[in-house]
Amino acid sequence: MTSPSSTVLSGGITTQSHRLADGRELIYFDDPGTTLPRERAADARELDPRPATATMRQDPLTGEWISIAAARQNRAFLPPAELDPLAPQSPTNPSEVPSDYDVAVFENRSPSFGPLTVDDHAPSGLDDLAEIGLERTRTSVGRCEVVCFSPAREGSFGSLSRTRARTVIEAWAERTRALSELPGVQQVFPFENRGVEIGVTLQHPHGQIYSYPYVTPRTQRLLAAIDSYGPSLMGDILAREQAGDRMLLRGEHWSAFVPFAARWPVEVHMLPHRHVADFAETTAEERDELAGLYLRLLRGVDALYDTPTPYIAAWHQAPVHTGRDSVRLMLQLTSPRRAADKLKYLAGSEAAMGAWIGDIPPETAAQNLRDAIARADRAHPVEPQESR
Predict the structure, then answer these.
(1) Quick one: pLDDT at residue 3?
(2) Helix 162-180 with 284-302: angle, nearest 10 deg
(3) Of the residues 18, 204, 206, 316, which is catalytic?
(4) Of 179, 203, 251, 375, which one has the greatest count of Cβ atoms within 10 A?
């Protein structure tokens, strides 16, 4: 058993760092008032060495970089519950987490970026990445982490308690801060994939955090839009939506709405009311409120139909070194589910040309979601915020 020193974060959440058998970092985030013991078991497995850091290649037609991470072919695919790699270890399950936990974060065993963060062939900066050439390659430096929301073997973020949701949000903020300080990291991206329809390979409630060695294509397009419109773009969008008929939820610090030009049958954006570039810049009060509003939103999305809704919950954050005064932290939640038994597939126009056709008017989608949130509030109310 090991018992390293603990760090107390906002909201009374504590954290401690360990190492897995192959050297990967494992960090426990404990709920305030947790009943777990402070001591945690060491990882006694015998593991193969970590795979070599992948190489990324530039597409000269777009300037985009594609990481070729062959080690990902060997990752777990829908294992049986008794071999859940994200459950606490047991005598019959040599999983990734040696001890019971509230929230656990660890380096991905088969990462798309990393484990190296420094390399002689790594990108030398954003100008280097922006150059166009034939058969250009760079080392895929960076870091990929898995965020286990709960030791439970089934569920999603929406099935968490409010206390646990707050702990996960604290983990996102603390990991965003730490990962942004790593050499070579240009952008940090927390997200949750939910449902086999999305391509989820593990049923265990979890998300991931990618730390990219470049600014992602989606964010580059946002930066170009801000450059054309002006630095107030995201604040102006929020003000317009708050006055319109696509609003879903509004608190003191956050608002959620269906965007004006929604691409997906279910698409929700959530913005903080003040400008913050990423989770690390949010206050304890903002994180407290987000825990409740986000749970209400996700439970409403699940209440649209009789079965759980597949989705991607993508927390867009400003790049580490650019655009921080104009790019605001934003949730973009999307689902391909366009009816109880139908999915939207990206066929010719969307997949080949990036030219989207919406199936449901955003105003209709917003009303459907408001009704679903009301049903979820009645059936599964979010518990009140605990006083600190």
Answers:
(1) 60
(2) 120
(3) 206
(4) 179
Contact call for residues 319 and 283 (beta carbons, < 8 A): no
Counting every residue written for the chain, the total comes to 388
Instruction: Kindly list the domain boundaries of the chain, sorted by start residue.
Output: 7-36+51-215, 219-379
Is 206 one of the annotated active-site residues of the chain? Answer: yes
**Distance between CA atoms of residues 323 and 197, nearest Å:** 34
Full strand arrangement of the beta sheet holding 137-139? 65-68, 55-58, 137-139
Structure-block tokens of residue 306: 């009789």
| Cβ atoms 284, 10 nearer than 8 A | yes
Contact 123, 58 (CB under 8 A): no
Predicted pLDDT at 330: 98
The Cα 94–Cα 377 span in angstroms is: 39
Q: What is the pLDDT of residues 85-101, one digit of tens each?
A: 999 999 999 999 999 99
- CATH code of domain 219-379: 3.30.428.10
DSSP one-letter code for 383: P
Quote the percentage of the chain above a pLDDT of 70: 97
Question: Which pTM value belongs to this model?
Answer: 0.96
Q: Domain 7-36+51-215 - what CATH class? A: alpha beta
Q: One fold for both 7-36+51-215 and 219-379?
A: yes
User: What is the 8-class DSSP label of residue 7?
Assistant: E
Residue 281 tokens, joined: 């810049």
